[in-house]
Amino acid sequence: MKKIKGNEVSYAKYGYLFIAPFFIAFLIFQFIPLIQTIYYSFFEYYRSGLKIIGPNPVGFDNYAALFEADFGKYAGNTIIMWILGFIPQILISLLLAAWFTDIRLKIKGKQFFKVVIYMPNLIMASAFAMLFFALFSDNGPVNSTLISMGLISKPFRFLSSVWGTRGLVGLMNFLMWFGNTTILLMAAVMGINPSLFEAAELDGCSPRQTFFRVTLPMIRPILIYVLITSMIGGLQMFDVPQILTNGKGTPDRTSMTLIMYLNNHLFSKNYGMAGAVSVILFIIAAILCLVVYFTLNADDDSKRIRKRDRLKPRKEAVNG
Amino acid sequence: MDKKPSHARTVIAYIVLILLTFLCLFFFYILIVNATRSHPQIQKGFSFIPGHSLMKNLRSVLNDANIPVMSGIKNSLIVSSLSAILATYFSALTAYGLYAYDFKLKKPAFVFIMLILVMPTQVSAMGFINLITKMGMLNTLYPLFLPSIAAPAVFYFMYSYMQSSLPLELVEAARIDGSSEFHTFNRVVIPIMKPALAVQAIFAFVTSWNNYFIPALVISDNSKKTLPILIAALRSADFLKFDMGKVYMLITIAIVPIIIVYIALSKYIVAGVALGGVKE
Known about the structure:
heterodimer, A: mainly alpha, MetI-like fold, two-stranded antiparallel sheet, two-stranded antiparallel ribbon, 13 helices, disordered N terminus, disordered C terminus, B: mainly alpha, globular
C-alpha cells in the first residue's frame, strides 16, 4: 500500500520519475557538451598533424581571431541566402493562405495542392542539393534545355557564379519551406473568428482590404513565430550549401555559411576555434529562443481570449 | 454581388498554384526519368521520356563497393526507427509527467523545455563529439539516436495534445481500479495518444532519415554510414568519373521511399503540421 497523507496519495515522485529520462538525456547529450564547448572556446586546442596542441588557456584570443578572419563574411553569406529564400517564402505563403481560406474563391483540389507544396519539406536536403548540383551543372539538363530552347547560346555556369550559387541555395530553401509556412498560416487564418470576416464583407471590404486590415493583424503572433523559427533555421543552414559546393562555399567562399565554417573547424579538430564559433551561434540562438518563448505564451493567451469570445455568442443564442 | 473580379481572382489563383505545383514536382520528375536512363543517354540531353536502364542503374549502384548502399539503407532505417520510437515515447512520458502530476519543479521544468524548444543542436556539437569520443561511441550508431530521448518540439506537441484530449478523470478512474501509475501511462494514456504519436513518429523518422550534420561528424567507418553521408561522399568524389545514371539512382533511393510514405499518409501529415506549429 502507498503511504497516505490525509485522504491523498502523494504522486509527486511519479512526476519526477517520468520527466527524468528527458532531463538526463538532455544533460548528457546537450548540456554537458554545451558547457564543454563554452569552456574550450577560451583555450588553444587543436591538432597539428598528429600532434595535439593544448589545451592552453588563451582568454578571448579565439574570439579575436574569429573576427579578424572571415567570420563577418560568413555571417553575411548566411543572412543573404536566408533572405533570398525567406522573402519569396513568406510572400507566397501569405498569398496561398489567403486564397485557400477565402470562401469567395472556390479553389478545387486544395488538399492536393497542400500535399504537393509540403512535399519538398520532407526531402533529404543533402539529396535535394545533390540533385540540383547534377541538374544545374555546366552540361546538366537545365543548361541543355535552355540552349535547345534558344534562350542562351552557351551554358550558364550557375555554380561558378556568386549569385547563381546563392540563388540556387535560396531557391531550394524557398521550395523546402513555403509549403510548411503556408499550412501554418492557413491554420492561423482559420483560427480567426469567422464573424470578423462576415462583418468585413457586410461593410463592403474588398478582398485586399480584408487581407490587410483583418487577416494580417490577426495572425501577427504566428507571423512573428514563423519569422523567428525561420531565422533559427537560417542560422543552421548547412546541408544544402555544403553538398552543393562540396563544403567549399564556392565561388571564393561566397556561399560559405556559419555552420559550414563550424563544420570545417570540427573536421580539422580545431576545438578552440570551433568552440568560439559555437558560443556566438549559441548567443544568437538563445536570443531567438527567448522571442519564440514569449510569442508562444502570448499566442496561448490570445487563444484563450478567442475561445472565450467564441463561447459568448453561443450562450446568448441559447438564452435568446 | 461582385462575381467578375472573384472569377478573375480564381483564374489567377489557379495559374499561380499550377506554376508552384510544376516547380515542386518538375525536379523530382527529372530525377526519376534520369534514374531510368543510361549515362550516354543522360549526357546527350534531357528528355521527358523514361529510358530502359532502371534495373541496370540499380544494379550498378548496389554493386559499387565504394558506396555501400545496402548497409546505408539498413543503418538509416535502424537510426531513424529508433529515433522515432525514443522521441515519441519519451516525449509523451515527459509531457504526461508534467501534465498529470503536481510537484515543486513542475513549472520550472516546463519553462525550461519551452525555452530550449528551438535551440539548434549544432551549438553544442563540439562538446558532443568530444564527449562521445571519450565514451567510446565514435563510429557507432548510438549517438545518432540516443539524444532523441530529449526532443523538446515533440514534447510540446504531446503536451498540447494532452491538454485537448486527455481528461484527468480517466487517469483517476484507472487509479481507482488499482492500476499502477506506469501501467496507466502505458495502457490508458498511450492508446489515447495514438494519433499524436503516429504524426510525431513520422516527423521524427524523416528528420533523422535526412540528418546529415551530426552523423557526418560521428561516422567515418564505411559500414556504419547512413544515406546522407553516402550522398555527400558521392558529391566529393570526382564527379566526372561517375556514371550519371548511378548518381540519379542513389538520389532516388534516398528520396523516393519518403515520398511514397508521405503520399500514403499525407492527410495525417498535413493535418499534423497545422496542429504542431513546431518542427525541428
